[in-house]
Design a protein that fits this description.
binds calcium ion, 22% strand, four-stranded antiparallel β-sheet, five-stranded parallel β-sheet, alpha/beta
């Protein structure tokens, strides 16, 4: 399992990030100060560190150096939106930079991108009785192959990586079809129907009124 360290002294933000990463299947640990963050990095191996810059004691810039010495990629998450800080962060070796306030979906997309770039991306996922092998794009249930089209597979991954999040139709369209949404909701709806049926996720992929869809694993799906 991919392990992510969140170093953030604002508890509500740390909790929001942790909850979303946990729902997407990542294991998380939260440190509320730079010193605590350094201790965590020393004690455990992490695949990624999401790092606030303004921290009590050791700040994010100093901790970035330490994380880099351990080959842990860093995404800065900070209220400092000034271009200078951004340039400094990236020049010092951060993989990416997100300014508060941020969209949680944007954060998740950047986490995925950095993990992919650093070859730490998850290759296999198990959710709701489905086994998903990402490089081979194969999905099985109880050893039986489920034949999904290219778009259906991408749609499944989008849902699995954003559990509990209401996804707007335009966002679904733009992510899966990789082109601007022109209001053609039928395309999204049709693919969701097909995916639900093929993968046996009729109840887990819920329609959200006036929004789109939300993927919610049922309590019995979780062992
Ligand atoms: Ca802070």
């Amino acid at each position: 399992m991919i392990k992510i360290l969140i170093v953030e002294d604002e508890e509500p933000i740390a909790n929001l990030v942790r909850m979303n990463l946990k729902n997407a299947g990542y294991e998380c640990r939260v440190a509320a100060s730079g010193v605590e963050g350094a201790d965590c990095l020393e004690q455990e191996a992490f695949d990624l560190c999401i790092l606030d810059i303004m921290l009590p004691g050791i700040d994010g810039y100093e901790l970035l150096d330490y994380a880099k010495s351990l080959s842990v990629p860093v995404i800065f998450l900070t209220a400092k939106g000034e271009t200078n800080d951004k340039v400094r962060g990236l020049r010092l070796g951060a993989e990416d930079y997100i300014t508060k306030p941020f969209e949680i979906l944007e954060l998740m997309a950047r986490v995925d991108a950095v993990l992919r770039r650093c070859h730490k991306a998850e290759t296999e996922l198990d959710v709701c009785g489905l086994h998903i092998n990402i490089p081979s794009r194969r999905v099985t249930r109880d050893g039986r192959e489920i034949e999904l089209t290219y778009k259906e597979f991408d749609l499944l991954l989008l849902f699995v990586r954003n559990q509990g999040v209401a996804l707007y139709r335009d966002l679904i369209y733009e992510r899966v079809w990789d082109s601007p949404y022109m209001g053609d909701s039928r395309t999204v709806d049709l693919h969701v129907q097909r995916l639900r049926k093929k993968a046996g996720l009729q109840r887990e992929i819920e329609a959200v009124y006036k929004v789109g869809y939300r993927f919610m694993p049922l309590p019995e799906d979780k062992e």
